[in-house]
């Protein structure tokens, strides 16, 4: 271990002075550089897409129908498709995910059963989206006969979102102070009464944040959606109709070189939507971390 | 401030009565009661009787089993994995661990106030109405009556009557603790357990709570847990000294603090440990 | 009252089993669809075969396994040091306010859709490589760069948590004997957080192996075993996504068999990562 003081052993008047070259200065600069580089990449990506796409993002583009495979016209059906697919998947996944989290935190003690449930959610979290896509195609589209539709797509997306919602809800539920629960129980409340009237309301902001974050991921998902919701450019009339979501539309435009111009526009819309959702989530999280009621000490 | 005057008046009355009331019919009775967390024995064959409408202060150092005793009595310990017990623990002659005991009903009969004030994340009114609501009281008029009565008994009504709908988190620490007490009173319990209820409070709020307990012990069986012998002496009534899961001695505060029977009690109250 | 209680418990127990049920369904369907293929073509000629041309009935998936391997390796070489550096800066050196701003910013990276990453790769990185380094531009290098950035959020947030979990007294103990902050970090904090950082690396690896759309757009997707970092490459995931749209019969089964291979690799990675995380908890 190198001594941080420049003199060796003799504590003269200069002994407490800062050494000229402190060891590790290079290392510190290096890690700082990593952070700067990462943020620069982020800023570049967002800036690049926004600047290139801004020109295309006109009301006519947002509200118009695509023409000539998307070479001209707008992206309205894709916006409708993305919104309905995302909302439907949240409506399916949120109750299941929050319910699982309540089950894990309030209704079971650590044991074989909870370990199985936890193993299930954690494994699900690691599965690549393309596998979800394959599964959704085999199971919902073909086996259950739902075809390429909002329904098939949202069920597949819901399965993908489940682990995120379970994890964030579980964190939020575990952060509810135990004395709240003890107080409710001590007043003769039953388990469900305690959960419904004390635990869930207290954890709700954290749960909502998690659901919104999961929603943000669903908005941008491509691989799982392209095989389950289809790629139809028509405006969907019901949840049994196929849709082409924004990321799918963007992918097709860019990869098949149909219109790089409109691809930028679509990417800008997609990115704005994702960022908006993310900021909403962080805003809620930030507000609760400030306002969180904590039992006085 | 009218409430305060009333409280101090009844304090005088209460003090004169406390000593006389000892010897009523037993409300809480432990007979050879032991309690275990896994293999750790937290209570060792406890024998203890608390008469109806009396005030018992349990004092002892950390880990002496005071809180375990309280949480056994309302079975809040049920939530801890790996617990077991032996002997019997009676409430009004009925073992609380009997098979046919409904835990929710038991907990309504045995109210509990915790060390830290716990305002539930809702309004002052809803905090007090929480217990009655969960019991099934839904009439708005009846709830209003219960809430007012409980807040008056907890000497908090005058301070909050104009802002019942504001969040309970806006109250001061002392007010929050009296709110916790009102919340317990609203379920109309027979026994009130208090687990170091003043440990987070300033001296003035502490004295207020202590006065309240003396008043309440005329109508309820009150069991107060404290690690502070000075508080036990101040509150008067009966005092029990717990040490390492055992009841070392029990008697009227007046005599225990003047002439402790056991060396360990003497060491504790003179501050040699704890 | 009691019936409501029982009802809640039963409903929540059933709901709690959803994720396990979904996992079981996924495994069942993917394996069932892929299994006949293994029976027909044989595991050896599938895994070991170097030629993939479904038209001629050749189904060798080795180029894609190699592709996934090289691309992932490249992504780790780029993403792990960069991510660990970020995490170190955020947890050990950054002023509190700076960290409070930077951390959510980096997490936003995780929210950017993978097609957008792929598109940036397609319009910025691929031409850059083609013009400066030669080759088609669509390459192992381009894929590794894109994936290296994409795994950053995973790498940063999990190693950050691991570093934060190191008790403050460790650092103070080192500072008290005259070490500076960098020395305290390298000699005590990093070793103490090592298993968590390893888990972060493995989970990032899982991310990289499983990523599909971004890679398709920059990899070139040729079914050859790449000879250099500038050669085009096709990964397991791309193989499925590219051909699923029109595949039928044995060809389709071959794609599901590719899914099985992918599944097994991801499963193994997760199990390894879990064992590291568990060791850390103990």
Description:
The complex is a heterotrimer of chains A (297), B (274) and C (282). Chain A has eleven helices and two strands; from the N terminus they run ααββααααααααα. Chain A is an all-alpha fold and 297 residues long. Chain A has a domain of 175 residues: Orthogonal Bundle (MetI-like fold). Chain B has a domain of 176 residues: 3-Layer(aba) Sandwich (Rossmann fold), CATH 3.40.50. In chain B, β4 and β5 form a beta hairpin. The longest helix of chain B has 20 residues. Chain B is globular and about 55 Å long. About 6% of the residues of chain B have low confidence. With 282 residues, chain C is mainly α. The longest helix of chain C has 33 residues. The mean pLDDT of chain C is 90. Chains A and C meet through α1, α3, α4, α5 and α6 of A and α1, α2, α4, α5 and α6 of C.
Explain briefly what this protein structure is:
Chain B is α/β, with parallel strands linked by helices and 274 residues long.
Radius of gyration of chain A: 25 Å
Which oligomeric form is depicted?
heterotrimer
Question: Which strands sit side by side, in order, in the main sheet of chain B?
Answer: 6-7-8-3-9-10
Using the coordinates shown, work out and report the CATH topology of the domain at 20-116 and 191-269 in chain B.
Rossmann fold
Q: What top-tier CATH class of the domain at 84-251 and 285-291 in chain A fits best?
A: Mainly Alpha
Q: What is the CA-atom radius of gyration of chain B, in angstroms?
A: 18 Å
| Unreliable stretches covering 5 or more consecutive residues of chain A | 1-8, 292-297
Terminus-to-terminus distance of chain A:
42 Å
Order of helices and strands of chain B: HEEEHEEHEHHHHEHEHEEHH
For the record, the CATH architecture of the domain at 84-251 and 285-291 in chain A stands as Orthogonal Bundle
Strand content of chain B: 15-25%
Sheet with the most strands of chain B? 6 strands, mixed
The CATH superfamily of the domain at 20-116 and 191-269 in chain B is known as P-loop containing nucleotide triphosphate hydrolases
User: Low-confidence segments of chain B, ≥5 residues, pLDDT <50?
Assistant: 5-21
């Amino acid at each position: 271990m190198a001594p941080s003081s420049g003199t060796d052993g003799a504590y003269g008047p200069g002994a407490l002075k800062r050494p000229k070259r402190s060891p590790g200065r290079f290392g510190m600069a290096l890690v700082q550089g990593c952070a700067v580089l990462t943020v620069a990449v982020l800023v570049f990506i967002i800036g690049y897409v926004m600047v290139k796409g801004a020109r295309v993002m006109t009301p006519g583009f947002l509200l118009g129908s695509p023409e000539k495979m998307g070479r001209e016209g707008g992206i309205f059906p894709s916006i409708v498709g993305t919104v309905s697919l995302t909302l439907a998947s949240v409506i399916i996944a949120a109750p299941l995910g929050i319910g699982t989290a309540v089950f894990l935190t309030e209704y079971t003690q650590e044991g074989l059963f909870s370990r199985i449930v936890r193993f299930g959610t954690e494994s699900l979290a690691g599965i690549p989206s393309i596998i979800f896509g394959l599964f959704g195609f085999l199971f919902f589209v073909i086996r259950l006969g739902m075809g390429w539709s909002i329904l098939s797509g949202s069920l597949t997306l819901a399965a993908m979102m489940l682990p995120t919602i379970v994890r964030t809800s579980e964190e939020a539920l575990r952060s509810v102070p135990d004395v709240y629960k003890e107080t409710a129980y001590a007043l003769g409340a039953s388990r469900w009464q305690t959960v419904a009237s004390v635990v869930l309301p207290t954890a709700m902001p954290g749960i909502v944040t998690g659901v919104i974050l999961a929603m943000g991921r669903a908005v941008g998902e491509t691989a799982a959606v392209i095989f389950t919701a289809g790629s139809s450019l028509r405006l969907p009339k019901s949840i049994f109709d196929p849709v082409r979501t924004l990321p799918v539309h963007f992918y097709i435009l860019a990869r098949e070189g149909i219109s790089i111009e409109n691809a930028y526009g679509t990417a800008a819309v997609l990115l704005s939507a994702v960022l908006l959702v993310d900021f909403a989530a962080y805003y809620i999280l930030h507000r609760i971390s400030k306002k969180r009621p904590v039992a006085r000490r | 401030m009218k409430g305060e005057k009333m409280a101090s008046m009844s304090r005088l009355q209460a003090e004169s009565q406390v000593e006389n009331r000892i010897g009523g019919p037993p409300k809480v009775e432990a007979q050879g009661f032991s309690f275990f967390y896994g293999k750790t024995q937290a209570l060792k064959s406890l024998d203890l009787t608390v008469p109806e409408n009396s005030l018992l202060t349990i004092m002892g150092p950390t880990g002496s089993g005071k809180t375990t005793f309280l949480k056994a009595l309302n079975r809040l310990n049920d939530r801890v994995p790996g617990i077991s017990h032996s002997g019997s623990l009676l409430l009004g002659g009925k073992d609380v661990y009997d098979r046919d005991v409904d835990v929710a009903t038991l907990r309504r009969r045995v109210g509990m106030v915790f060390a830290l004030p716990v305002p539930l994340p809702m309004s002052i009114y809803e905090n007090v109405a929480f217990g009655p609501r969960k019991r099934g009281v839904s009439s708005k008029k009846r709830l209003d009556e219960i809430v007012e009565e409980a807040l008056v008994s907890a000497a908090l009504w005058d301070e909050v009557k104009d802002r019942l709908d504001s969040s309970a988190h806006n109250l001061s620490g002392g007010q929050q603790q009296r709110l916790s007490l009102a919340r317990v009173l609203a379920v109309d319990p027979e026994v009130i357990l208090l687990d170091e209820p003043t440990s987070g409070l300033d001296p003035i709020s502490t004295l207020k709570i202590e006065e309240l307990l003396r008043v309440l012990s005329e109508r309820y069986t009150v069991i107060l847990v404290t690690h502070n012998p000075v508080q036990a002496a101040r509150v008067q009534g009966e005092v029990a000294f717990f040490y390492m899961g055992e009841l070392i001695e029990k008697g009227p505060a007046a005599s225990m603090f003047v002439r402790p029977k056991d060396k360990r009690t003497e060491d504790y109250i003179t501050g040699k440990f704890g | 009252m009691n019936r409501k209680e029982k009802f809640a418990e039963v409903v929540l127990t059933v709901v709690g089993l959803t994720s396990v049920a979904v996992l079981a369904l996924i495994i069942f369907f993917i394996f069932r669809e892929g299994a006949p293929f293994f029976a027909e073509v044989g595991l050896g000629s599938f895994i070991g075969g170097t030629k993939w041309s479904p038209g001629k009935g050749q189904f060798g998936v080795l180029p894609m396994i190699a592709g996934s391997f090289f691309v992932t390796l490249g992504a780790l070489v780029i993403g792990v040091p960069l991510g660990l550096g970020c995490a170190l800066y955020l947890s050990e050196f950054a002023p509190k306010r700076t960290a409070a701003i930077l951390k959510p910013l980096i997490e936003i990276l995780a929210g950017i859709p993978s097609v957008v990453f792929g598109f940036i790769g397609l319009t910025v990185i691929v031409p850059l490589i083609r013009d400066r380094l030669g080759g088609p531009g669509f390459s192992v290098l381009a894929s590794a760069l894109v994936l290296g950035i994409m795994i950053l959020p995973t790498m940063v947030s999990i190693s950050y948590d691991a570093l934060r979990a190191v008790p403050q007294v460790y650092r103070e103990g080192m500072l008290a004997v005259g070490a500076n902050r960098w020395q305290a970090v390298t000699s005590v904090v990093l070793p103490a957080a090592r298993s968590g950082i390893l888990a972060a690396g493995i989970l990032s690896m899982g991310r990289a192996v499983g990523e599909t759309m971004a890679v398709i757009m920059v990899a070139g997707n040729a079914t050859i075993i790449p000879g250099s970092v500038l050669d085009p490459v096709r990964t397991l995931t791309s193989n499925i996504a590219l051909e699923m749209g029109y595949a039928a019969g044995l060809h389709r089964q071959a794609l599901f068999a590719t899914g099985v291979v992918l599944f097994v690799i991801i499963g193994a990675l997760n199990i390894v990562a879990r064992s590291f995380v568990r060791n850390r908890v103990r």
